[in-house]
Amino acid sequence: MTQPVLSLWINGKAQASAGTRTADVFNPATGQAIRRTPLASKQDVNSAVAAARAAFPGWRDTTPLRRARILMRFRELMQEHRDELVHHTCEEHGKTREDAAGSLQRGIEVIEFAMGAPHLLKGEKAEDVGRGVDCHSLLQPVGVCAGITPFNFPVMVPLWMFPVSIACGNTFILKPSEKVPSASLRMAELFHEAGLPAGVFNVIPGDKEAVDALLTHPDVRAVSFVGSTPVAKYIYETAARHGKRVQALGGAKNHAVVMPDADLDFAADALTGAAYGSAGERCMAISTVVAVGAAGDALVGKLRDKAEKIKVGPGEQEGIDMGPVITAAHRDRVQKLIDSGVTEGAKLVLDGRGLKVSGREQGFYLGPTLFDHVTADMAIYEEEIFGPVLIVLRVKTLDEAIQLVNSNPYGNGTAIFTRSGAHARRFERDIEIGMVGINVPIPVPMAFFSFGGWKASLFGDLHVHGMEGVYFYTRSKVVTSRWPAGEEQGPSSLSMPTLG
Ligand code: NAD
Are residue 388 and residue 413 in the same domain, yes or no? Predict the structure, then answer.
């Protein structure tokens, strides 16, 4: 059967690609191809950039208050169309309905943050920085911005970027993951319906060809990226070489440190959700537990009991806790990593390999998997697995735990479970990770704070959304002014001017 082909969204309307390449979009719950997506060509990128460039002067000159009103209407439409966006997410990604709804909500909160544009874009002013001299700063848009997003949050991760960028007066081109294009295209239609002028927001599903065309296009001024570390590094280096500002968020290996003084039932509950929610395909998933001292045996028993009860199946079906992973190839890669854990001598406490869901035998399923007594030289520790696999390492002290976390190349998120304020304070201070939870397993900052990791989890300086997002999407200008009356004019001087 020939599958329907999606469009691109350029200059306020759906358009066919000028190229001929397309890719299958799968429903991972059934394993079937459900539609095809265009893979945007260089010519498509040129059209999108031309539309965004043409729309920029008018949008820049639209007052922040008017921009905010369009964002408010967009937010209302996103709420009205929640079910549809949740369905797109479940169908193309495989998340459960509740999980998809939760991530949609977190994305809508970024629109709510961006609705504060008139306040967010206020600069600073100081009177009398010198005698009769004032100084003020402005935050001005950078121009055409591009966003490149991963498969694992079809709605939320694009929303980390474009509402803030557009609120700041920029125009935007989104290149969503070719595995989950439908939600982004629907958001473009809704934003258009909300009154956004044509060309301000464009969506071009595609792959490396489109990405490379964006990274090298002279009219693209800023690039936001979220995805795996090797691609993040490539994006950062290539876009920077072409003179753009870049924020490139990469992969993760998030550790939770569990102290012997922690409430172990509470910790096991929190960790089960954080490890197996969204089949472990979250950049803030806890994939590694560091059990300190006596915490180990009891904790592993509780984790196994909880993981065993997880119901795996199609995410849109009632009562399902965990859906499939994204592709057959990814399922096979995760299974191979589990094989390697067994070969390398870790203790396999719960084995999710080979799981078949009745009536969905072709779906890309894997059961929850738990390893104990993992060591730092094993592949299951060294690699980002990005599947429903939780590994437990044992250490003797908090010092050892902190050293282990800090030695890991990734630095996205981490958590400590403890009843001791002293342990928590020490951890918060010494840990070299961008987002830290204290008895909170997935410390994803709210929209009015900024989201981002350290080390190999972020290439660039500024995190997404919150005020760092505003600073990323604006250039600051500082104006120093004097209005001399004729008699105040002194003799001209060739020395460095000083004020005060
Ligand atoms: P990915 O790196 O394969 O793809 C991300 C985007 O880059 C997609 O739009 C894809 O089309 C494009 N792309 C892929 N290969 C490319 C190449 N060689 N050249 C140019 N562009 C390319 O990531 P994914 O599999 O879609 O997503 C999962 C990864 O994203 C995981 O590593 C996860 O940790 C990470 N992630 C990180 C965060 C974060 O906030 N740090 C958030 C979500 C996901």
Answer: yes
Model confidence pLDDT, tens digit, residues 211-227: 999 999 999 999 999 99
* Residues 228 and 263 both lie in one domain: no
**Which residues span the domain enclosing 32?**
8-250+457-478
Name the 3-class secondary structure at 304.
helix
C-alpha of residue 377 to centroid of ligand 1, in Å: 25
Residue 21 phi/psi, 5-degree rounding, is: -80, 140
- Residue 214 in 3-state DSSP? helix
Q: Is 283 a catalytic residue?
A: yes
For residues 18 and 478, give the distance between their C-alpha atoms in angstroms, rounded to a whole number.
Answer: 43
Asked if residue 457 has its Cβ within 6 Å of ligand 1, the reply is: yes
d(CA 459, CA 236): 6
Domain count, the chain: 2
- Quote the pTM value: 0.97
Is 443 part of any domain? no
What is the best residue among 231, 384, 389 to mutate for testing ligand 1's pocket, by most ligand atoms within 8 Å of CB? 231
Distances (CA, A) of 451 to 176, 270, 434, 468: 19, 21, 8, 9
Confidence of residue 492 (pLDDT cuts 50, 70, 90): confident
In ligand 1, which atom is closest to the CA atom of 149?
9
Q: What is the mean pLDDT of residues 256-281?
A: 98
Dist. CA 338–CA 380, nearest whole Å: 7
For residue 344, is pLDDT > 80? yes
Beta carbon of 151 within 6 Å of any ligand 1 atom? yes
> In terms of domains, do 55 and 123 share one?
yes
For the Cβ of 351 lying below 6 angstroms from any atom of ligand 1, the answer is no
For residue 489, the model assigns a pLDDT of: 62
Q: What is the CA radius of gyration of the chain?
A: 25
Burial of 78 (0-12, 13-18, 19+ CB in 10 A): buried
Is the CB of residue 323 below 6 angstroms from any atom belonging to ligand 1?
no
